[in-house]
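User: Hey, quick favor. My workstation is busy. Could you predict this chain's structure for me?
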Amino acid sequence: MTGMWSRLRDERGASAVEFAFVVPLLLLLVLGIAEFGRAFQVQGTISAAAREGVRTMALQDDRAAARAAVRNAAGTLDPAITDLQIAIPQTCAGRPVGSSVELTITYEMPFLTDFFGTGLELTGRGVMRCNG
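Assistant: No problem, here it is.
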């Protein structure tokens, strides 16, 4: 009888060691999935904000209004988008009919954990014909 109990104890010990090896990998996998999901959501928000900003720029030809539209559309981001992260190279004024205006947002998304680095640079870009 003692041989059987000894064997069960050894198997439980081996299971504990295997569990100790597997848990960090599973934890890393779960954190990676969470970081990827968050980056995907932030990228969608930035793209939508770029579309809103370039639409405002194309219709109103006002850089300040376009930047305000971007900040408004991306109000859920933390940290918030600043004016320095919004690039509007040209306006519609004085350009030929049918020309387009462009708006680019460059956003540094910090990671929730430091397992994968400090952050990721995401870009959202919108292009629209002037005057809609």
